Amino acid sequence: MTAPVPADVISRLKAVLGEDGWSDDPARLAPRLEEWRGRWRGTTPLMVLPRSTAEVSAVVGVCAASGVAITPQGGNTGLVSGQIPQGEILLSTERLNRVRDLDAFDDVIVAEAGVTLAAVHEAAAAARRRFPLGLASEGSATVGGVVSTNAGGTQVLRFGSTRNLVLGLEAVLPNGEVWNGLKRLRKDNTGYDLKQLLIGAEGTLGVVTAASLKLHPLPVSTATAFCGLASATDAIALLARAREETGGAVEAFELMGRLGVALALRNIPGLREPLEAVHPWYVLIETTSGEPGVAEAALERLLARALEDGLVADAAVAQTQSQAHAFWAVRENQSGGQKAEGAAWKHDVSVPVSRMADFIDQATRAVEAFHPGVRVVAFGHVGDGNVHYDVLKAEGGDDGAHNALRDQGSRIVHDIVAAMEGSISAEHGLGAAKTAEALRYKSPVEVEALRALRAALDPGRIMNPRVLF
Ligand SMILES: Cc1cc2nc3c(=O)[nH]c(=O)nc-3n(C[C@H](O)[C@H](O)[C@H](O)COP(=O)(O)OP(=O)(O)OC[C@H]3O[C@@H](n4cnc5c(N)ncnc54)[C@H](O)[C@@H]3O)c2cc1C
Fold it and tell me: Which of 59, 163, 182, 440 is least surrounded by CB atoms within 10 angstroms?
């Protein structure tokens, strides 16, 4: 727990922000102090709600002068407890909610940190553009949050993660100074890149207050298919073929195991079985193109041959937009479908794509041997080598007993990931939850260099002190 915040600092922060710029009302704070899965609860003496970059700067200045720690929070959809304060001042970006500019010629949108990803999508669509970062949490996740976690969604395969989609940033550094780096340049090769350091920094190097984000043209044709397969190995073989044979049209390639699909159907109202028969594995594929008819033709060609060869057991191509949404709903509810099942050890890992099926197989054998009866739900952005590998308690098992084995169980999974030269956090970051675990796998040389960088920018370690190295 962070040291108590002195009363005079609280008074100064309240004075800086005015009556409606802060809250210590327990009812208002409650949803901000618990994360989406209900796994972590926090505490704060004060939530500050700055309305402008100048107000963020004033808040950080007061805290820096007194050595008081701050936890920034956007949409509170982070899954590693980086946004949940444990005694720090909670800085919410809720009121930094303006789209400052959209320029369709430069293909850029400039949005403040508290604008939701869904609002960015809406603004882009109104200008016949798109911002190709799609997350199931996009209704709440914010620009500041996705930048600070370097989020990657369902379109990383084609467009890369947030790191590839940011042209410039504005941020308040840990000493309270404002850095205006809101450039719109595609090329700017002028030495160290401060914006790339802030992307993925999880609130440890300052508060992101706005970002200029790259826009792309809307696709002219889109096709979506749900495929049933016999094994994860077949899914990886299909991915390799899809890349080769569709001329780069594949935008999403999402893997799901039968158990994850069955739990989504069992626990989320309104979902429908996507294919007539049941299959051990499924893949959702989406192709897009700037030419009419090309996405559909590429997907149909790919599937016709894969069905003929027996690589795919069955496939349905969406005939309407609502059918495509129904397919995506099954994918997007893979996490939600597990919630009702109780305790789970969650892992967000990546391995080289070529090792993915091998990883799922090895990890499943190892966790089943360690704790017989557990149920593995593996799903995710497998086109990027990223799988959410969740180990649920046995059907009807005890939550406490399962949770008690989490650290040991996760160590087994993470050691297999490390042996395959993978990452123990592919897209969610480390937050407070995974920092200690990451230290086991990072090289001391790297950790020392990263600590030196942080200490240079934030000598008092006031920004999100429990997060990262
Ligand atoms: C259902 C669901 C699906 C998800 N799917 C994906 C997915 O596909 N891909 C993916 O990458 N993630 C996914 N996530 C995780 C989460 O949505 C992302 O990490 C998202 O980027 C967090 O945004 P947020 O605004 O909610 O940030 P928060 O949760 O509020 O904060 C996350 C981190 O960023 C810091 N932070 C927030 N705002 C700022 C700021 N302005 N300046 C500095 N630091 C800041 C916080 O301190 C914290 O460390 C999912 C989460 C859920 C609940």
Answer: 440
What is the largest distance, in Å, between two alpha-carbon atoms of the chain? 73
Q: How far is CA 335 from the centre of its chain?
A: 13
Residues 6+ apart with CB under 8 A from 316: 225, 226, 274, 275, 323, 327
Which residue is it, tokens 């999974």? 413
Is the Cβ–Cβ distance between 115 and 97 less than 8 Å? yes
For 107, 187, 202, 394, the CA distances from 208, given in Å and listed in that order, are 21, 21, 10, 42
Tokens 């009556």 sit on residue: 19
Q: Is the CB of 86 under 6 A from ligand 1?
A: no
What's the DSSP call for residue 466?
A: T
Structure tokens at 296: 């559909």
Q: What residue has token string 């149909």? A: 300
Predicted confidence (pLDDT) per residue in 148-177, tens digit? 999 998 889 899 999 999 999 999 999 999
Q: Is 142 in the pocket of ligand 1 (CB under 6 A)?
A: yes
Among 43, 48, 71, CA closest to 59: 48
Specify the residue with its C-alpha closest to ligand 1, atom 36: 145
pLDDT digits (tens, 9 = 90+) for 232-261: 999 999 999 999 889 889 999 999 999 999
Give the tens place of pLDDT for each residue, 275-316.
999 999 999 999 999 999 999 999 999 999 999 999 999 999
CB 464 less than 6 A from any atom of ligand 1 = yes
Nearest CA to ligand 1 atom 53: 77
Q: What is the pLDDT of residues 113-138, one digit of tens each?
A: 999 999 999 999 999 999 999 998 99
Distance of CA 30 to the CA centre of its chain: 23
pTM of the model: 0.94
Cα 118 to chain centroid distance, Å, stands at 14
Distance 437 CA to ligand 1 centre (A): 20
> Which of 176, 201, 175 lies closest to 459 in space, CA to CA?
175
The burial of 95, by beta-carbon neighbours within 10 Å (0-12 exposed, 13-18 middle, 19 or more buried), is given as middle
- DSSP 8-state class, residue 141: -
Most informative mutation of 83, 253, 328 for ligand 1 (most atoms within 8 A of CB): 83
Residue type, 147: V
Q: % helix / strand / coil in the chain, to the nearest 5?
A: 40, 20, 40
